[in-house]
Specification:
86 residues, mainly beta, four-stranded antiparallel β-sheet, 4 strands, disordered N terminus
């Protein structure tokens, strides 16, 4: 079926006009834009870590400087200092 799925095929790399494919960044560039910015990272185990992104690798391992773990209970929260966190 023509036009089905996300294959690039004859439509080219950007897909049909107005397609979201034109907005997808190249791998790794999304994190590169966030270097030296304060981020909140939601881990798979439910923890929330806040820190300044200093580095990352191809596996999305992050180095966060000045990291804190944010604990949220109801409408209150507390931060546990972690320092430099990988």
């Amino acid at each position: 079926m023509e036009g089905m799925g996300l294959g690039l095929g004859a439509m080219g790399p950007q897909g049909p006009a107005g397609s979201f494919l034109a907005e997808v960044p190249a791998p790794g560039t999304a994190l590169a834009e966030e270097l030296d910015k304060r981020l909140l990272v939601h881990l798979r185990d439910g923890r929330k870590i806040i820190g300044i992104l200093r580095s990352f690798d191809q596996f999305a391992n992050l180095v966060l400087e000045g990291a804190v773990e944010r604990i949220i209970v109801g409408n209150q929260y507390g931060d546990i200092p972690l320092g430099l966190n990988v």
